[in-house]
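Z., the sequence and structure:
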Amino acid sequence: MCSVFCFSFEGLAQNGSKRAKLISSFSFRQLNGGIVVVKARLDNHADTLHFILDTGSGGISIDSATASRYALPLKESDRVVKGIGGVRPLRFYKNGTLHLPGVEVNALDFHINDYELLSEVYGFHVDGIIGYSFLRRYIVGIDYDQNLISVYEPGLFVYPKNGSKIPATFTTIPIIDQKVTDEKILSARMFFDIGAGLCVLFSEQFVQDSLFLSPNRKTVYTQVEGIAGKISMRYTTIRKIRLGPFRFRKVPLHIYEDDVNVFNYPAVNGLVGNDLMRRFNQVLNYPDQVIHLTPNSHYREPFDYSYTGMNYYFIGGKVVVTDIHQGSPAEKAGFLPGDVLIGIDNHFTNDIQQYKALLQNAGAKLKVLVLRKDRLVQLTLKVASVLR
């Protein structure tokens, strides 16, 4: 399969005839849902930090605990950040420098956010999120076959010949158009958000106004984490999605009650996340306002239709069950809030990423060992499917 390094000639970029120069290539870690994690250093500090690369971020940010550890001088502002889960006021660390492998990015204004919940979701300390403030300066290639990021100076860029440019509108967060089919065929304007570890998310208002889904559609409730905490969402599937020349069937769909109008509905109807987009090697050319997608080795992987109705987080060095949805497979199996996951089948790793992968297996019947107060309990969990 061709990576971002397999090129064909495509003519001049909008910003001139100078050929885009490769600055650096470096590896990244891919988490469940396609989340991209890169290592970087801040200013002159020697510590290696972990940042999530996120096209859904309109800037760049540092975790409040990391800022406190480094005693960073912070400035208050009257600005707010709006995201899934709510709105928060912003404080800034001004004029910082981010050192990625082989790339030094200067004059960055980091906003401060609390990423304790994200750290509990992913099982390691999330030090920050890299978004528009970085991406707008470079051409960035993301290769999910090799887990490799390539950073280029803006200029004439030669795109992989077996891919396609996707029409996009660029503000701080790119917006793409896609055709969606269920009860009817609609065009939907969606944020392109590789920091979201899901496939597709629609606002509840869009679903209700468009009558896109049947009112009798059976959905289940699940929990998603956003900047302001945990959010309950409806969960089902879409019959078809078309993204440029690429088509997918039976795609998992989350439906979000957008009380603070994150999407500025009706201007934007939802977002496309990286559990869908990781199936393409991506070239993100913000300077020329181009998103280029090339199908990769994950293109035909089955979607995750699993549903357990159980939420769990990495808390105090343990994988702890926190929430059980009524009527869910987890409730029927006998799980309780406070249970500590010790092992799933023969896996006793205390690795929340591995446990997530094992539980994302619709139809599987799993033996789960939990620590409940001071005793071990074995439960049998049958993972359900939302596939209709």
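Residues 352-359 form the longest helix (8 residues). The domain at 22-152 is CATH 2.40.70.10 (Cathepsin D, subunit A; domain 1).

Let me know what you think.
H.
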